[in-house]
Amino acid sequence: MAYVATRGGERAIEQSQRLFREEMGTITAERVAEIRRALPYLIDRVMGEASLYDEDLAALALAQTGGELYEAVLLLRSWRTTQPRLAVAAPVTQEGLFTHRRISAAFKDIPGGQVLGPTLDYAHRILATEVLSDQAYTPDPVEPAAQPSPARQPSVAAWQAENDLLSAAPADPTAGNDIPDITREPLLFPSKRAHTLQSLARAETGGVLALGYAAQRGYGQAHPTVNELRLAEGEVMVQHPRGTTFSAGRVKISQAEVVNKKGTQLELGFAATLGWNEVKVIAAATLDLNSEGAAKGSATEEEFFLYHTEGVESSGFCIHFKLPHYVTFQSSLDAMRDAKTKKNARQAEPAE
Amino acid sequence: MSLKSLTKDWEPMSYGFLDASAKCEIRRKTLKAIAVPGCQIPYASREVPMARGWGTGGLQISCTLINPRTTVKVIDQGADDSVNAASIRRFLSRVSGAPTTTDTLKADLIQSRHRIPEEKLREDQVLVLQVPNPEPLRPVQPNMSIARQMHADADYGRMWLQLYEQIVRSGRVMQGASYPSLVHGRFVMTPSPIPRWDVPKMHMAKHLTILSAGREKRLHAVPPYTRVEPLVFDDVPYQVEEHGQLTCTRSGAKGYFMNEIPQNDGTSTYEVSDSELGIKTIQKADGDTVELGDTWYQDGEMTQ
Question: What is the rounded distance in angstroms from the CA atom of residue A65 to the CA atom of residue A20?
Fold first, then answer.
């Protein structure tokens, strides 16, 4: 019988994909729209990790992958690779953010006020099981406050800097295409500030939480106080080739400032991401706060946490172990067997 | 004349998937890698439509080098029909229109994971190796920035110490695949997780080898006619896998790197790892006209 040059591999992968996709069935525009409407926080998380702000594409990626988050993010990141860079938007500053929610744990009240905004923080986490027996759950309508809170507020860190409690980082004048971009340059260490913040912005939420939590629990030196947490919208201002400046729309942004007392000054940790994802920015800001002077190889060292919270890389590497490794395995077996033979031969020799 | 007649129609992605700026960067970094053999060159490494760790580094090189006249061969563990090799081959041909082959002799570009084909490569061929971990110092220094400094200083003492300790503890160097090798007398590189059997094929080879790690964002190269010397002590010679005397049960090919196939009765049989070489051997035995190229190993011995 001849050696059959199989093309089985190609057929097998085709059928395995069909099996996977069969469960999701037909994907329609309605399904994508419903995912976008029903799961805004999941959409936000995916957009943040993908570093691609497009709710429709994020919803499509979720529909196409059946909610396999790592797959959805990879789908968006590789789509992003194919897109040209048309313009660089103007910087979005804290005081310019259209703010929905803004709280500070550092002060009872802050200039601009505490704005609770949308949150489940004080909700009792009880499943609405009646929905399963066909009673729709309709949330109670929101009653607007008599006085709306201001849409824009100064940052708490700015107030602290004015009062000599915190030395604010000098403003970085780098603009436009000169801003280091993690999607177009490799991450090298010590990392550029822009690269650090960009990496944290698109880090995998669970990974940032795990390492941030480790720092918070005691493996970090700095104990974070949430100076300010914000959920907001930022205006994307771009310049038309004709010279006019216009808004290309708003993007949801979350950001966190955390501080720690160091001598007579506060040190500041900062993180921001696309979409509303509070856990991620608090954990990421904690890592940022702890990174200065962290020991090489510790969980709060920049190189350690930036490499290991990159979700596309970590998840890809983790699943790559499913690939055949029989050549490398064979090579190891050979060394093991030979070492064993040598050992047995040595033991068989009579003692001198 | 209208503007439309001067421009191409909009397409959802560029030729060869990567856009011009990504290819430009990879070309520049590849040239740098060729100019400094064995030195790891960082590159941006765009996300591609495959998971990291599945050949995205090799894929970016292939996507950059490919053109409609490039004949491509893709192998994984020596086999053309391995599922991931099939997937990468299909992707490359889909985004480039390039013809594919399983014949090592007919390929212009060979993307491979964990093997170098047994038939000798020529000056006009390029081998792209997928690399999971580009840093040979990782076992002795997991921190990338320290390791980078060690390379700059040619500080390989801990590497040697590790090999020495293995000999003391186990009676031999225990490194399986990815045997650390000195390139052009300067940089220690990982040859990627190819078996020790394949490392001597890189030494003074006629072809260009580009090794690319997509997840780790590093690429390095072995230019043609470059020294690649496995790290060994003068009195403990380099040892390839003891496959020289094994025979493939399916093709009868003898003296090449084999896959061990465990049997129900507790024994093992062997199949030649380079699947195309196995096919050619069978075809030749059947009396078919088939061109079997020169192989690096003859009668189980390295010829160089």
Answer: 9
Q: Measured between alpha carbons, how far is B261 from B266 in angstroms, rounded to an integer? A: 10
Domain total of chain A: 2
Identify whether residues A167 and A52 lie together within a single domain: no
Bridge partner list, B189: B181
Does residue A295 sit at the B interface (CB-CB below 8 Å)? Answer: no
Asked if the structure places residue B237 within a domain, the reply is no
3-class DSSP state of A330: helix
Number of domains comprising chain B: 2
What separation in angstroms does the CA of B121 have from each of A197, B107, B118? 45, 9, 9
Domain that holds residue B251: 245-287
B13, B215, B259 ranked by CB distance to A326: nearest: B259
Nearest CA in chain A to B45: A186
Q: Mark out the alpha helices in A116-203 (DSSP H runs).
A: 156-162, 193-201
Does the residue A325 lie in any domain? no
Residues of B in contact with A331 (CB under 8 A): 176-177, 195-197, 241
- Complex ipTM over 0.95: no
Condensed to tens digits (0 to 9), the pLDDT of residues B56-107 reads 999 999 999 999 999 999 999 999 988 899 999 999 999 999 999 999 999 9
* A75 and A223 assigned to the same domain: no
For chain A, 352 residues long, the average pLDDT of each consecutive 10-residue run is 48 89 96 98 98 97 97 95 87 94 93 92 94 95 92 91 88 91 93 96 98 94 92 96 94 97 92 98 97 92 96 96 92 93 84 60
Contacts of residues A4-8 at CB distance under 8 Å and 24 or more positions apart, as own/partner, are: A5/B80, A5/B81, A5/B102, A5/B275, A5/B279, A6/B81, A7/B81, A7/B86, A8/B81
Encoding tokens for residue B236? Answer: 């403990």
Q: Say whether both A100 and A74 belong to one domain.
A: no
Structural domain range at position A48: 9-81
CA dist A174 → A62, A194, A269 (Å) = 36, 10, 21
Taking only residues 198 to 217 of chain B, the set having a beta carbon closer than 8 angstroms to any beta carbon of chain A reads 215, 217
Q: Is residue A38 part of a domain?
A: yes
Beta bridge partners of A232: A99, A253
